[in-house]
Design the sequence.
């Protein structure tokens, strides 16, 4: 059992706090958002994630876990302190480290004995060193700073915590490495090992991994553009490519581009920090450009199919940046919907869990609780997120409700021939 403190209780910190407590550790979650802290102590998660509500309830009840706004007390009581605050993008693409640095300073001021300070937030190379220096300015005793990047996928956060592909521990201290290995022992498997490395390599592993996954997505989106012109089917191309074990089938789904709170900012983050170090990352630069263009590429299909925007209504299915999450940060749907509204199009929308978050950006949209009410009277239906419940939709019912049977499928979830047979004008990505 280790006394742990997790600072920041968003997607990463909330998951870590609940899961570490569930492994038998005493865990304190800290956040500056007092409403969030109050809800968490009442058993209400700040995010939608399968299984985490139940684990939160169990661990609160069994008194291994509580949440507070009092960072100082929480740090004093803990041996391992995880920094899980946000690292958003600045307008120039650089990483805003103000939350990390402010927390580091508060930790430094609260230190009372040896502790391991763990950076779980995604941060540029050299941040562990910067955090160490900030703490040193405020505390003269012994401590270690570790880089332990997080790889969880929203929508599968709990599963990923307990079954990680790997655990990266970046540290220059053997003592800290042993403490971290002990902490993660319960989730380590032969095939999912703990990798101990230096802090800079650990920081770069995170950025390089996200940039590589983003590369696969932009790569297949670029192939989709080509496939469309020459009459090939990108889904078949991706399948044929992905079966090659050297390539792998994951992240080869053409669509409206990657979104979310990580890939867009991390791609820009690695570009910016490499540039600051005098290195131009040309492939990653192209990945960013292709992704920037992709929602526009799909928007053009919508506008072309609508012919004119005046008096038109588009029904949107899916608002979250991907299925099984309520996160709408940098959702490609946002770009497309914004442009459609600007063009005078009326929008109706449905998402199984992300409506409340999307409403904060677009209160003017008409929201519905199922796909059919959403599609009623629509001139076009746009599939923006590939939620499972859209896959086997009642096509006959859908067609009877729409004003015009046009579907623009931004996620390629239907078979073109089936949709044609069902009487739809069906437009997808990378398929004629
Ligand atoms: N969301 C993901 O899927 C994911 C996956 C891997 C890595 N990451 C990285 O993890 C980090 C956190 O991401 P997130 O999505 O959990 O962020 P988030 O925005 O959901 O949560 C951050 C939390 O930190 C709190 N916070 C900010 N300043 C604070 C302070 N001074 N003291 C206490 N709490 C404070 C905020 O109130 C908020 O609750 C980022 O660096 C992100 O890039 C995110």
Sequence:
């Amino acid at each position: 059992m280790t006394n742990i403190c997790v600072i920041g209780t968003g997607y990463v910190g909330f998951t870590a706090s609940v899961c570490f407590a569930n492994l038998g550790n005493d865990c304190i979650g800290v956040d500056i958002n007092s409403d969030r802290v109050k809800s968490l102590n009442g058993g209400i998660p700040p995010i939608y994630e399968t299984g985490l509500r139940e684990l939160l309830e169990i661990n609160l009840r069994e008194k291994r876990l509580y949440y507070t706004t009092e960072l100082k007390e929480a740090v004093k009581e803990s041996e391992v302190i995880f920094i899980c605050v946000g690292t958003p993008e600045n307008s120039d693409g650089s990483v805003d480290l103000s939350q990390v640095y402010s927390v580091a300073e508060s930790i430094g001021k609260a230190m009372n004995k040896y502790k391991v300070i763990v950076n779980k937030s995604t941060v540029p190379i050299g941040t562990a060193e910067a955090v160490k220096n900030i703490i040193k300015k405020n505390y003269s005793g012994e401590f270690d700073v570790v880089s332990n990047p997080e790889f969880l996928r929203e929508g599968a956060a709990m599963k990923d915590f307990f079954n990680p592909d790997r655990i990266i521990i970046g540290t220059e201290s053997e003592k800290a490495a042993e403490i971290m290995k002990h902490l993660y022992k319960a989730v380590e498997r032969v095939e999912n090992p703990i990798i101990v490395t230096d802090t800079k390599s650990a920081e770069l592993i995170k950025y390089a991994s996200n940039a590589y996954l983003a590369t696969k997505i932009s790569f297949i989106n670029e192939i989709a553009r080509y496939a469309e012109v020459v009459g090939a089917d990108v889904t078949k191309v991706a399948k044929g490519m992905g079966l090659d074990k050297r390539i792998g089938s994951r992240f080869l789904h053409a669509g409206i581009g990657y979104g979310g709170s990580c890939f867009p900012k991390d791609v820009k983050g690695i570009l910016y920090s490499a540039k600051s170090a005098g290195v131009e990352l040309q492939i990653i630069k192209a990945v960013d450009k292709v992704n920037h263009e992709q929602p526009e590429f799909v928007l053009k299909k919508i506008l072309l199919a609508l012919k004119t925007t005046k008096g038109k209504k588009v029904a949107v299915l899916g608002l979250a940046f991907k299925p099984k999450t309520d996160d709408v940060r940098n959702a490609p749907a946002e770009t497309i919907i914004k442009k459609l509204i600007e063009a005078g199009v009326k929008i109706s929308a449905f998402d199984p869990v992300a409506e409340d978050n999307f409403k904060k950006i677009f209160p003017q949209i008409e929201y519905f609780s199922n796909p059919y009410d959403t599609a009623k009277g629509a001139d076009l239906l746009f599939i923006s997120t590939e939620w499972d419940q859209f896959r086997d939709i009642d096509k006959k019912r859908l067609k009877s409700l729409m004003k015009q049977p046009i579907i623009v499928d931004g996620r390629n979830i239907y078979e073109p021939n089936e949709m044609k047979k069902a009487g739809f004008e069906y437009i997808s990505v990378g398929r004629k």
